[in-house]
Amino acid sequence: MGTIQNGSTGATGSTGSQGAAGTSGTPPTVSTVEYLVVAGGGGSGAQGGGGGTGGAGGGGFRTGNLSVSAGVALTVTVGAGGAEAQGGSSVFSSITSTGGGKGGNRSDGGNGGSGGGGGGGNVYQNGGAGTSGQGNNGGDATGAVVEGGTGDSSGGGGGAGAAGTASSAGDGGNGGNGLSSSISGTSVTYAGGGAGAGITINGTAGTGGGGSVGVSGTVNTGGGGGGSGGGNASSPGAAGGSGVAIIRYPISVANAVTTGIYSSDATYRYFKFNTTGTITF
Q: Which of 24, 92, 104, 105 has the fewest CB atoms within 10 Å, counting from its CB?
């Protein structure tokens, strides 16, 4: 990828009067952009003994094309990862991605972009529901009633690409895998679900930043935090990874003014937001 800038980049671009575009005169203003908006992943609940907590859900994942207006400043909100709570939503114009669901603590998993896994305990705990078009459900904690005394294992958090799996015979459920996007110029996977804690074997984390048991989701991927505990161990919950927003459009079109991270190559202008910022097309 070509030039990279942090902070504001003006209408003349990074290489003089539209040198990156290789054109003369005034280039056209942008009317349609591609976007990726990923919300913050959920955090798993703290475990106080007597049941592992569910893996948290990955943040909502939305991508597509959007019409924009020249000269209008837009705020791009990047959701924080949840700390023993649902993740924060990410917003670009009319596009909102919902934060990942909290991993359950002897309770059902939380709803979100993708749902959190059910928390281990002595009864069946449901995985949280994912948001249609953004993610998938968390896995259930099947409970001692079903597993015959191994109810302390928990379900995996849902991911953008797949649901979390249920706990089984003392094993924690796996986090659901995320989805990949090449909007940044490189293929990256986002919004994976966190692993569920098990008594005998812990679940595995979903691809796309999901956390292993006791491990936070990866920053700027929207990965869900891994579950905690298992059996009678006490431990804090693991936080979700923060979200991200990426916008791109053809290099032949006029540059934007942004507080995000600007880069370009021979084909596209890229605007990446790891934190909340603004962009004016």
A: 24
Please tell me whether residue 148 adopts helix, strand or coil conformation.
Answer: coil
The residue assigned the tokens 């094309």 is 65
Q: Measured between alpha carbons, how far is 22 from 251 in angstroms, rounded to an integer?
A: 9
Q: Is 274 exposed, middle or buried (0-12, 13-18, 19+ CB in 10 A)?
A: middle
Residue 146 belongs to what H/E stretch? helix 143-147
Task: Give this prediction's pTM.
Answer: 0.89
Task: Give the integer Cα–Cα distance in Å for 169 and 147.
Answer: 6
SS3 177: coil
- Between CA 176 and CA 10 the distance in angstroms is 41
Amino acid (1-letter code) at residue 191: A
Distances 231 to 23, 119, 274 between C-alpha atoms, Å = 65, 12, 37
Nearest-5° angle of CA 94, CA 98, CA 101?
Answer: 175
pLDDT in 10s for each residue of the chain, 281 residues: 444 444 444 433 333 333 333 344 688 989 999 999 999 999 998 876 667 899 999 999 999 999 999 999 999 999 999 999 999 999 999 999 999 999 999 899 999 999 999 998 767 899 999 999 999 999 999 865 554 455 678 999 999 999 999 998 789 999 999 999 999 999 999 999 999 998 889 999 999 999 999 999 999 999 999 999 765 556 788 999 999 999 999 999 999 999 999 999 999 999 999 999 999 99
